[in-house]
Amino acid sequence: MDQNIYLIGLNHKSAGVNIRERYALTNIDEFENGLLDMGIREVMALSTCNRVEIVVVCSDEFTENEILTYWADKCCGSKTDLEPNTYCYKNLKAVNHLFRVASSLDSMIVGEPQILGQLKKSYRKAVEAGAARVIINRLLHKSFFVAKRVRTETSIASSAVSISYAAVELAKKIFGELKGQKAMLIGAGEMAELAAIHLLKSGVEKIRITNRTFARAEELAETMNGEAVPFENLYDCLSDTDIIISSTGAPHAVIKAKDMKAVIKKRKSKPMFFIDIAVPRDIDPDVNSLDNVYLYDIDDLKDVVEENMSQREDEAVKASSIVESETLSFGNWLNSLDLQPTIVDLFNRSESVARKELAKTLKRLGNIDDETRNAIETMALSIGKKLVHEPVIFLKRRTEEEGAAEKFIDLARRMFNLDNDTIPSDAHCKRKKSKD
Amino acid sequence: MTLFEFFQYLIIALYLMGMIFFIGGTLKNNKIMGKLGNLCAIGGFALHSVDLLLAVTLYKFTIFTDGFFYLSLLGWSFILVYFALWWKVRNTFFALTASPLALLLFISSLATQSLKVQQLPAHLVGLFIGLHIGTIFLSIALMAMAAGAGVAFLYLNNKIKTKANLSSLGKEMPSLNTFDKVNHWTIMVGFPLYTLGLAAGFLWASKTFNKAFSWDPKEVVTIVVWFLFAILFHQRLVAGWRGRKPAILVIIVFLITMISLWGINFFVPTHHSFKV
Fold first, then answer.
1. Interface residues on B facing A, Cβ-Cβ cutoff 8 A
2. Using 50, 70 and 90 to split pLDDT, how confident is the model at B56?
3. In which region does residue B220 sit, left (phi positive, over 0), alpha (psi from -120 to 50) or beta (all else)?
4. Which helix (H) or strand (E) holds A210?
5. CA distance to partner chain B, nearest, from residue A286 (Å)
6. Residues 251..270 of A with a Cβ closer than 8 Å to B: which?
7. Which runs of E-coded beta strand occur in chain B?
8. Is A231 buried (19+), middle (13-18) or exposed (0-12) by CB count in 10 A?
């Protein structure tokens, strides 16, 4: 292969946050153009908070060192600093890595969907800059296809892996659609705020916020487009609230099971979901024993997240085998690229032989009408083409076999003398003699 | 094999395929399998309707003296109610209750073709028995759906309450709220129908046997079921019962009804009895 795919990069596994920050690419267009100016054929760079990946297509003349030096220079750093934190993959290993990145198998949270969007954005930039051509185009399209296949054929992204998402998923399991449900935030912890935002995004109709410091409740209500409620009115509001997220710093329970009975009666047993993120807990654990009331504390939610994480890991094994098979199929395509020049040469050779013989024949025939001349020409050219058709099919099939491409292409080039190597006039005689 | 028999085997095949698709679709959360299940159920139901129509056309009102007709009609009612429920909640989950029961009843109807309903003077059957059977069967089918939703509710409620890991089935199940809504709707429609069916039955009995109530075991059990059903209806409507309690009660009501259908009709002397 005279053109190789290299993937050079760093990620959250290979480098600490300080290195990732330092060697993040701020001006991708300029970076890609610089590499193209150096003579690299194709390039695409991806830079996110967790990774920098540089995919290049180049001849063997280029080395990892040159790219690393260029990268370090662009980030005003040194190659010696950068190199130990990076990895470099060549050809199919690079393809495999990119497929894993696109399928989110290489992410900090396996299955998170953001990386695919970031990759698509980077690819679009590379296309606009003219830095992505035949191989990167095909490679990236294939990456998107692999990512889609992984998502459809495995449940890698089906379960919630953050506390706030787990809370929303549970709420959906209880209420179905969250549209029309009312939620309340007791206290103003950061995680509770995040869960409330997720609930709002999932369609919750109204959010109330209560806090011992009313001003803080008002402040938060403003950012969430909600309603601030005085802490004293907590129980009055509960009967009209379906989802309660609590995260106060109170040392004792804020909501007690015995007080909840009246609330449930007032609600005519409509279900309620309590999410208690506070430590120590805000809600009396006995609340969970009441009919149609569901209580999850921080440890329960953590358990849900951990279970989901382990399920994702199981799914990641399935996803990896999809990535492996798609890498092989991409490898076949790459091999077929190697074959292209040989196919062109074969057809050119057949045409030139046909034209040569055609010229001789036409000269011998003398004056003939145009119709006959055209018919003879068409016949000669099509015989030439048909003669090489079967060898081309044979070569295409053989080069799909792993590791066979180089051998068969070389054989074909020698058989048809496509490289115009001089064959010694006595080559066959020598062999004949040795047989005798 | 006669053409009629082939027709009936086709119904069984369609119901069986439907059931397999529904179970597979639910376990694997595969919507295409759910759609295929629906297609099979529609096909089976259409043929089943033709089968019942042919039986009524051929035998006229004497069909009411044939045991197989009742079992077949009850099976048909299950699928009919499932379709109504599917239209309402757009979820094939409830076919898990309807399709096995419909299949079982249809196969049973074929296996019991020689059975006759005792003490049923053919010349006296008419509008009232049609009303009695039609409404009672529809309400039993509704009751079955409520019971199915009840079982699913209890399973999921237990999983959420105990913070247990939701298996793949639990994850893809409809929400607790959906099960409760189905339970509510089927009880709200089912109880008035059951009451109407019972009233029509007593009216017919008073005209046929000159007494509305004869302490027949089937009648006694039916009254017990009606009382429990009435409590359920009242508590749902007035006291605002939701979730676990109505789920448990409707399962009990449905179980008594099934015991009554298979136990009393086949093994206890009653004027509802199926005998050779």
1. 156, 160-161, 163, 165-166, 171, 174-178, 240-245
2. confident
3. alpha
4. strand A206-211
5. 11
6. 268-270
7. 116-117, 274-275
8. middle
Which of B171, B175, B244 is opposite residue A174, by nearest beta carbon? B175
Task: Tell me the Ramachandran region of residue A393: left when phi exceeds 0, alpha when psi lies from -120 to 50, beta otherwise.
Answer: alpha
Tell me the pLDDT tens digit for each residue of A337-359: 778 888 888 899 899 999 999 99
Q: Could you give the count of Cα atoms lying within 13 Å of A63 in the half-sphere of its Cβ? A: 3
Q: Give dist(CA A97, CA A106) in Å, integer.
A: 8
Residues from chain B contacting residue A174 (CB–CB below 8 Å):
160, 175-177
A206-211 vs A227-230, strand pairing mode: parallel
Cβ(B161)–Cβ(B225) under 8 Å? no
Question: B118: which 2 tokens?
Answer: 């005792």
Tens digit of pLDDT for each residue in A105-164?
Answer: 988 778 877 889 999 999 999 999 889 988 999 999 999 999 999 988 887 777 666 777
Q: Is the peptide bond before A84 cis (omega within 30 degrees of 0)?
A: no
Q: The complex's ipTM?
A: 0.83
Mean pLDDT, chain B, integer: 85
Give A212-270 pLDDT, tens digit per residue.
888 888 888 888 888 999 988 888 888 889 999 988 878 888 888 888 888 888 888 88
Query: What is the per-residue pLDDT across B101-115, written as a single tens digit (0 to 9) for each?
Result: 999 999 988 877 666
Q: Tell me the residue ranges of DSSP E strands in A239-379.
A: 243-246, 272-276, 293-297
* Beta carbons of A268 and B244 less than 8 Å apart: no
pLDDT at residue A160 in the model:
64
Average pLDDT, stretch A364-377? 90
Across the interface, do A172 and B175 touch by the CB < 8 Å criterion?
Answer: yes
Give me B32's structure tokens: 């295409």
Q: Alpha helix locations (H) across A103-248? A: 114-128, 134-153, 163-175, 190-201, 214-224, 234-238
Query: Distance between CA atoms of A103 and A110, rounded to whole angstroms?
Result: 9
Q: What is the pLDDT of residue A244?
A: 92
Of residues A269, A304, A307, nearest to B241 (C-beta): A269
The helix/strand/coil state of A205 is coil
Residues of A in contact with B174 (CB under 8 A): 176
Is residue A58 annotated as a catalytic residue, yes or no? no
pLDDT at A436: 44
The residue of chain A with its CA nearest to that of B163 is A300
Helix, strand, coil in percent for chain B, rounding step 5: 80, 0, 15
pLDDT average, residue stretch A23-42: 89
CA distances A58 to A52, A61, A282, Å, are 19, 8, 61
Q: Which of A177, A274, A292, A298 to mutate to test the interface with B (most CBs of B within 10 A)?
A: A292
| Residues 6 or more apart whose Cβ sits within 8 Å of residue A38 | A62, A66, A70
